[in-house]
Amino acid sequence: MREVAVIGVGMTKFGELWDSSFRDIGLKAGMLAIEDAGLSGDEIDGMFIGNMASGRFIDQHHIGALIADYSGMASNHVPATRVEAGGASGGMAFRQGVMAVASGMHDMVIVGGAEKMTDVDDPSSNAIIDSTADQQWESSMGATMASLHAMIAKRCIHEGMATREEIAAVSVNSHANAVDNPNAQFRRATKIESVIRSSAVAEPLGMFDCAPISDGAAAVVLCPLEDAKKHTDKPVKVAAVSQASDTLALFQRNSILSFAATRVAAERAYARAGISAKDVSVAEVHDNYTISGILAAQDLGLFKKGEAGKAFLEGVTLTGGKMPINTSGGLKAQGHPIGATGVAQIVELTHQMRGTADKRQIAKPRYGLAQNVGGTGSAVTVSILEAI
Amino acid sequence: MASVAREWREIPGRYNTVGTKCGACGKIYFPARSLCPKCRRASVGKMERYDISEEGEVYTFSVVHDAPDANMRMKPYAVGMVKTTDGVLLTGQIVDIDPHRIEIGMPVRTVLRKIYEDGESGVIHYGFKFVPKW
Ligand SMILES: [Zn+2]
User: Fold this and answer.
1) What sign for the dihedral angle of Cα B93, B99, B104, B106?
2) Are domains A4-121+214-236 and A133-211+239-387 of this chain identical in fold?
3) Residue B31 and residue B14: Cα distance in Å, rounded?
4) pLDDT at residue B92 greater than cutoff 90
5) Using CB atoms, which residue from B69, B70, B79 is nearest to A143?
6) pTM of the predicted model as reported, rounded to 2 decimal places
7) Which among A39, A175, A187, A265 is least surrounded, fewest beta carbons within 10 Å?
8) In chain B, what residues touch A140 (CB-CB under 8 Å)?
């Protein structure tokens, strides 16, 4: 296997992009990444696209062909593959791209992620999100994605793993960090009380506990590490990409207070990178709901069980803190255009590892970790980038 | 809109919480599975019908205020995970009680109720819900 490097990144602003179509945003992110890598585009020999539900959001299936066409890649007949794994679609597309280059099958791959969610109304959008749980035995029984996470939160509070304030602090952390991110959907800070008092979605979670509905796209360019210096002075090494599965339905797990797929994917990634959790300088975690941020921080080993909430509450996880989490603003504040999310995490970590994260830059970065989740922990990818 | 067949084939599980028990390792599953995920090949032909207990207690729950219109449920409504006396977890609505009076550990039993309708002339979906066991 060859070592792989990220040599270019790009993303659109995340948010309600009323004047942009799916084609517009997909193309823009790809162009920015290719430009960042200093390429003409002719060097690209493979494309992977993370997208969850274009068939339901914009009535368009077959978006591999669509993006290849509109990005000009179809004129070179570059193979384009769409990857779907619910909320983990982007992280999984990234992993497929890394595997393609590592194996020697491809020498220059672009990984994109895109979702256009605001072309349907909010209830439709939420119904599509709910379909990433078990449609037959959860969603159609009345369990929304928010309520499944709310039930995790309720039990966590009941067992003393986190308090309501600590859970709300995950949102406060993401919002505080997003203030310095020009691409973020929400660039304003919020307070614990505002999160707790926000209108109820699924008790105990309110609107400010939930990631928004967003449009957006992100892209990264990958090549063998040995060739990376030909294209950029600041390549970033992909130290690990791992993935793990679990039951589709939450109620079939041994425990709902932890996502086993996150723990296993993290163990595999740390082993591959030859590091442990304490070596992680910065992490982008899947805070689609505030409680998910608590679970992620613990399951990744960044904090001990029962201690992540306190860390969020005390600001340890802020960009300037000891263990920065979601310097981009995370899903909650940067936005969550589902298929783009996992790729945007790689964009943020690449900036951190290169030292180009501007006001969000953390000191002395060495390893950056991204965790991307599908459903209620049914599919998880963990990727580790290394500054070289 | 879902076909009638899609609804009909799930009736044993949806109406009567019929699951399966693995004849090889004894683990109980809901919904029914034709393969035990732990025993895999060794469980082929050994998965037996198992009627999940109708009694249990609330393991966790949420009061839902924001849900897709398609569900046409009265909002807010309560959804919970119930641990049956067999130790199996089930997900469904908790009804016949003010949602804010529900507590973790509260004893409940499963009942058959209407779950939702596919519009005015579509299929009416029935299934299990939980009610307090007074
Ligand atoms: Zn078995």
Assistant:
1) negative
2) yes
3) 9
4) yes
5) B79
6) 0.97
7) A187
8) 115-116, 125, 127
